[in-house]
Design goal:
286 residues; mainly alpha; 0% strand; Cyt_b561/ferric_Rdtase_TM; membrane; heme; metal-binding; transmembrane helix
Length: 286
């Protein structure tokens, strides 16, 4: 009985000291987003899990490409094609096309670049990650210009930023831009200490995934909004309605696959020896 009494005392003290400790936002996010990060970093994914990753990754790419192709088909066959300011109605069609490329397909691939190319050196992966983000941002800006122009240049001007789609979409774009800015400064700007980069990483990952989820949600809202406006007979499920619904389902599948691949600790990229050399010789580590 004396042995049990001695064992219980330190347990109570440890519990009290643990609950009294205040964790920072980065630490809390690290707990939820990287539950087995240390284990995965040391051992790496098993061959079986890597094979599973390759299969799911390939399916994800196929679904993302299908979204862009079907979106282009919808615009070309049912919505009158593409133009610029000469025809505001079809100028708008650039918006869903470029958003599906930029904020969906490219955004998802920029998130997955570290796990999809796990055997590449970290510095080229950082540059690739930033480059894909930058390209997605260009597509997004042009898509926004097309949307605002099509509203403002219409014979009867259409109000801007009044729908739920526009609010959620703008939130996703703003978050995407802030992610790009802070990520560039933190991981590509020379002189930032490695300890600061490590502290910010869970925050960067969390808000990157959140921005992607918001982009998928905004796309679904916009898809439904456009379908209702463009199809008076939508309730009867015409061929165009079937096509729109298929695009919506693929958006959900693509979003789910990307989030699964980027958050499952089993698929975490294992650090390469070259990565350690890069940190050792970087200005931020000196």
């Amino acid at each position: 009985m004396e042995v049990h009494a001695n064992n219980n005392a330190p347990t109570k003290n440890v519990w009290q000291s643990t609950t009294s400790t205040r964790l920072s936002l980065g630490q809390w996010l690290g707990i939820f987003l990287r539950p087995t990060a240390d284990t995965m970093e040391s051992s790496g994914p098993s061959p079986t899990s890597l094979n599973n990753f390759r299969v799911v990754y390939l399916i994800t790419q196929m679904v993302g490409a299908a979204i862009v192709i079907l979106m282009g088909s919808w615009i070309g066959v049912h919505l009158g094609g593409l133009s610029w300011t000469s025809n505001p109605a079809t100028q708008f069609n650039w918006h869903p096309l470029l958003m599906s490329i930029g904020m969906i397909f490219l955004y998802g691939n920029s998130i997955l670049v570290y796990r999809g190319f796990r055997y590449a050196r970290k510095k080229p992966l950082k540059v690739t990650h930033a480059a894909i983000h930058g390209l997605a941002f260009v597509f997004t800006v042009v898509a926004l210009v097309a949307a605002f122009d099509s509203h403002n240049l219409a014979k009867v001007p259409i109000p801007n930023m009044y729908t739920l789609h526009s609010w959620v979409g703008m939130a996703a774009v703003v978050l995407f831009g802030l992610q790009y800015l802070f990520g560039f400064v933190s991981y590509l700007f020379p002189g930032v200490r490695e300890s600061m980069r490590s502290t910010y990483m869970p925050v960067h990952v969390f808000f990157g995934v959140l921005g992607f989820v918001l982009a998928v949600a905004a796309s679904l809202l916009g898809l439904l909004e456009k379908a209702i406006f463009a199809m008076p007979d939508y309730r009867y499920l015409p061929p165009q309605g079937v096509l729109v619904n298929m695009i919506g389902l693929l958006l959900v599948v693509y979003g789910g696959l990307v989030v699964f691949l980027v958050t499952d600790p089993m698929y975490k990229r294992k650090a390469l020896p070259e990565d350690a050399m890069l940190l050792t010789h970087s200005p931020s580590s000196q």
